[in-house]
Amino acid sequence: MRNFSDLSEREILALAIANEEEDGRIYMDFADGLREDFPTTAQVFKEMAEEESGHRRDLLTLFQEKFGEHIPLVRRQDVRGFLSRKPVWQIRPLSVEAARQHMQSMEMEAQRFYNRAAARSQDASIRKLLGDLALAESSHEHMADHLVESRLGDQERGDESEAARRNLVLRYIQPGLAGLMDGSVSTLAPLFASAFATGRSWDAFLVGISASLGAGISMAFAEALSDNGSLTGRGSPVVRGVVCGLMTTIGGLGHSLPFLIPDFHVALIFAIGVVIVELGVISWVRWKYMDAPPVAATLQVAFGGALVFATGVIIGNS
What we know:
Helices cover 77% and strands 0% of the residues. By secondary structure, it is mostly helical.
């Protein structure tokens, strides 16, 4: 890598051309990634890409006038001081806020680059163009805000908010809730069966831990293999699998950890208290994100948990 201060004016212009081309492609990637769920915001990024294309044409014209037709290959990664940017295709599913924050970072870096480049240039025409581009980049954030304000009316903002909420539910809340329900409810029977059968906290703890980890691994693979997300819009199967498996394990560990208390009866009381809290959290999530009526959500979860708990008690005392 070379220091920015070591670049000639020819190389600085070549770097500016490469930067504008890359920024334009990034904006088009954002537009493509947001088009399905957020078409209005996608149009904003498309217009930003067109703006970058105009800058690139201006730079190309000036380069040809000053240095001829051949443009040396000088890229961001060849010069110290530039931020490393993760390709857009690696950060799917793409959110509106992540795209806008990425855009702001890009424009701030571009402005600093043009200011430094203009300060170093000895050619009046090059210095003028670089200074103009620095001003243009500084106004891009305001331009984006203006485009968003002008294009996103109340209806469009409502649609985008609903799309964002739908994506959150499909990609994170739903698999997480399925895992939490499975971990909290399905592990009740083996845990409390072993607890009442042995009367020993440590034995119950070992059963609870093994059931929680086993259920977590099983649910992670089940969720990840059930749907690749390409048609349903549920996002990365790996992310869903991790979320589901992690929440399953947490759900089982919650009422297993109290059995680390040596006194069996104290541990049992704490474990039952944790179960009540877990079922309450599940009911709240179902009401908050799955549109389930609060009373119905509570009764359904409590009834299911009570059945599994009773099964474990009956088996453990048999």
